[in-house]
Design goal:
Elements: E1 2-8, E2 11-20, E3 23-34, E4 39-44, E5 50-55, E6 59-64, E7 70-75, E8 80-87, E9 90-95, E10 99-104, E11 110-115, E12 121-127, E13 131-136, E14 141-145, E15 158-163, E16 171-176, E17 179-185, E18 192-194, H1 196-201, E19 212-215, E20 218-221
Antiparallel strand pairs: 1-2, 2-3, 4-5, 5-6, 6-7, 8-9, 9-10, 10-11, 12-13, 13-14, 15-16, 16-17, 17-18, 19-20
């Protein structure tokens, strides 16, 4: 396949084609984002089924490699200028401020991040042995060891998002090392209610907790401290 980004009117577009013999046949030409945010990087997924783009609006977007159909997306906190697959389950995006963010694939969920450079991350290349090479406008090339879901094996990275809820309690969705789960927080209550999956990722095993507390008619296990 062949893929490139281009300006068309007031939009950046993704153009997709297939190579047949000595010819390139067009497959799709779909809008990505407004022209004020450059789309400077894209990559095919390892199986060739998807094309992911990185733009200066901070968005990573996935499109079907054969028809341009819209797929998963993720919005980072900084403008993005480079992108590469580290493995068939991990995607790396480089920012205009030196940050490298790892996303799970194909879910496109936050896994971890690390500020490897002081300026734009202009190049990302996966290396054998779970390593990632990056080049920046700070005149440096860095090689990072990547554990599954982590750019730095000595750190645990988290992100939180407040989601609307019909009840008076706010529901906060958290990602811990790539695993997602909700929790609720009530300033008037002594407990924070966490899903079992999120508890395990935070190092709490619910099955070994003996103490329980009644919350709205439900017996919930308690982890003190």
């Amino acid at each position: 396949g062949v893929a490139f980004s281009r300006m068309f009117g007031k939009k950046f577009h993704l153009w997709l084609g297939s190579v047949v013999g000595r010819q390139v046949r067009p497959l799709a030409d779909v809008p990505i984002n407004d022209y004020v945010f450059d789309v400077e990087a894209l990559a095919y997924s390892p199986d060739g089924a998807w094309v992911v783009t990185a733009g200066r609006d901070g968005a990573v977007r996935a499109f079907g490699g054969s028809d341009g159909a819209s797929g998963a997306h993720y919005v980072a906190e900084e403008p993005l200028v480079s992108i590469a697959f580290v493995t068939d389950r991990l995607l790396a995006a480089g920012s205009a401020r030196g940050l490298i963010t790892l996303l799970s694939w194909p879910e496109m969920r936050f896994a971890s991040e690390s500020r490897v450079h002081s300026e734009e991350v202009r190049g990302l290349v996966a290396l054998p042995g779970g390593r990632l090479a990056s080049g920046g406008w700070d005149k440096t090339i860095a090689v990072s060891a990547v554990e599954p879901g982590r750019l730095d094996p000595n750190e645990v990275r988290t992100s939180f998002e407040l989601t609307p809820a019909p009840s008076r309690l706010p529901v906060i969705r958290a990602a811990v090392d790539g695993g997602e789960g909700p929790f609720t927080y009530d300033p008037a209550a002594p407990q924070v209610i966490v899903s079992s999956e999120l508890a395990r990722r935070a190092g709490i095993e619910p099955s070994v907790l003996a103490e329980t507390v009644d919350v709205k008619g439900q017996a919930l296990r308690v982890a003190r401290g």
